[in-house]
């Protein structure tokens, strides 16, 4: 919507030709974004897009499927085409972030990450949104920013791609934890404590992987953590709430047609943290609940009975 409103001809690639035809005929994406009238500058297709004529490409495929789809297109992508990664997660089979997956699959592309507090429904309504646009270097991110900016959409640039990706991936897992806590009725004080201690976990992982603290304190870290941990509009948070209320994970996932990224990212994150010797007790607790090892109540009891420690450790 943003790009089309900026005057770009936008090709929306999808796997299902019938759905593409439906979108072109109705100007609605009934399955994934109902209630939004799609801009006339958007054309849906199931054919390989004409990458040779593209100024940029946004990858919005769920994290666990990004590699397969990038490989599908890799040979069509010209040297230096900017690919902007919008998915928030860690690939479970490799423990890689999306920019690492892109570097392996489409090495000729210029890599960017767009992340931050931005519900698609808010953006499409034109509600004010500010996000992080990260590139390999700041000049490249600065050059790309005007293409994705809008009257109510402000990208702030950085060259800290790993920081931008850590923020988006970790906040999804923490939002499941916040949802569980609220679903169990444990109150707003516990909710605030979990956000703050979760942010400490995000920062510890960031330090181990070379992210900058100011990136994680910004839109793609703290900003998105606050949004996702505070809104039932978040799929991760609402999944956690339903777990906290006693529903089974499989029932929750099968009741929705939309991705809940934190579910696959939680085990990847726990393994990545272990590999780098980073302490992430809340994320471990989420993973143990998701894998059926403990109940949400047992997870909260475990977290509360951990040995006391300094707040800055
Ligand atoms: N919806 C939102 O507000 C935001 C979503 N994101 C991120 O964007 C990514 C996608 O999220 P949504 O679009 O909301 O999810 P969604 O579940 O609403 O849509 C996912 C899209 O990917 C397609 N898809 C699913 N499996 C696929 C596969 N194997 N190959 C190719 N395409 C496949 C689906 O057909 C659908 O079009 C996620 O990583 C999410 O964290 C980021 C910011 C905001
Ligand atoms: O990333 C998002 C908002 O910034 C969307 O969060 P959910 O995937 O939890 O809905």
Automatic annotation (TrEMBL):
The gene is gpsA. It comes from Litorimonas cladophorae. Keywords: Cytoplasm, Lipid biosynthesis, Lipid metabolism, NAD, NADP, Nucleotide-binding, Oxidoreductase, Phospholipid biosynthesis, Phospholipid metabolism, Signal. Catalyzes the reduction of the glycolytic intermediate dihydroxyacetone phosphate (DHAP) to sn-glycerol 3-phosphate (G3P), the key precursor for phospholipid synthesis. This is Glycerol-3-phosphate dehydrogenase [NAD(P)+]. InterPro entries: 6-PGluconate_DH-like_C_sf, 6PGD_dom2, G3P_DH_NAD-dep, G3P_DH_NAD-dep_C, G3P_DH_NAD-dep_N, NAD(P)-bd_dom_sf. Substrate binds at residues 88, 235-236. PROSITE patterns: NAD_G3PDH (PS00957). Its EC number is 1.1.1.94. GO terms for molecular function: glycerol-3-phosphate dehydrogenase [NAD(P)+] activity; NAD binding. NCBIfam families: PRK00094.1-2, PRK00094.1-4. NADPH binds at residues 15, 32, 88, 120, 235, 259, 261. GO terms for cellular component: cytosol. NAD(+) binds at residues 120, 235. It comes from the Bacteria. Pathway: Membrane lipid metabolism; glycerophospholipid metabolism. Sn-glycerol 3-phosphate binds at residues 88, 116, 118, 171, 224, 234-236. Residues 1-139 form the Glycerol-3-phosphate dehydrogenase NAD-dependent N-terminal domain. It catalyses: sn-glycerol 3-phosphate + NADP(+) = dihydroxyacetone phosphate + NADPH + H(+); sn-glycerol 3-phosphate + NAD(+) = dihydroxyacetone phosphate + NADH + H(+). Pfam families: NAD_Gly3P_dh_C, NAD_Gly3P_dh_N. Residues 160-300 form the Glycerol-3-phosphate dehydrogenase NAD-dependent C-terminal domain. It is found in: Cytoplasm. The active site is at residue 171.
């Amino acid at each position: 919507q943003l790009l089309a409103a900026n005057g770009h001809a936008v090709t929306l690639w999808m796997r299902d030709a019938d759905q593409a035809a439906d979108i072109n005929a109705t100007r609605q994406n009934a399955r994934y974004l109902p209630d939004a009238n799609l801009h006339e500058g958007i054309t849906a297709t199931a054919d390989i897009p004409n990458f040779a004529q593209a100024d940029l490409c946004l990858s919005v495929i769920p994290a666990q499927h990004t590699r397969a789809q990038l490989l599908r297109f890799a040979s069509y992508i010209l040297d230096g085409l900017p690919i902007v990664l919008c998915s928030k997660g860690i690939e479970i089979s490799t423990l890689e972030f999306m920019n690492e997956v892109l570097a392996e699959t489409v090495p000729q592309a210029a890599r960017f990450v767009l992340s931050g507090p931005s519900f698609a429904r808010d953006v499409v309504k034109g509600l004010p949104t500010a996000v992080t646009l990260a590139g390999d270097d700041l000049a490249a991110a600065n050059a790309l920013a005007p293409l994705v900016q809008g009257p109510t959409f402000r990208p702030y640039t950085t060259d800290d791609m790993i920081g931008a990706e850590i923020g988006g991936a970790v906040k999804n897992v923490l939002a499941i934890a916040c949802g569980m806590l609220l679903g169990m009725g444990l109150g707003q004080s516990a909710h605030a404590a979990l956000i703050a201690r979760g942010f400490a976990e995000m920062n510890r992982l960031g330090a181990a992987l070379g992210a900058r603290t100011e990136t994680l304190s910004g839109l793609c870290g703290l900003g998105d953590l606050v949004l996702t941990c505070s809104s039932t509009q978040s799929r991760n948070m609402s999944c956690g709430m339903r777990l906290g209320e006693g529903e089974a994970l499989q029932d929750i996932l099968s009741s929705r047609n939309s991705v809940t990224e934190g579910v696959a990212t939680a085990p990847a994150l726990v393994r990545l943290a272990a590999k780098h010797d980073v302490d992430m007790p809340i994320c471990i607790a989420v993973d143990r609940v998701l894998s059926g090892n403990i109940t949400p109540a047992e997870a909260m009891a475990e977290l509360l009975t951990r040995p006391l420690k300094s707040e800055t450790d």
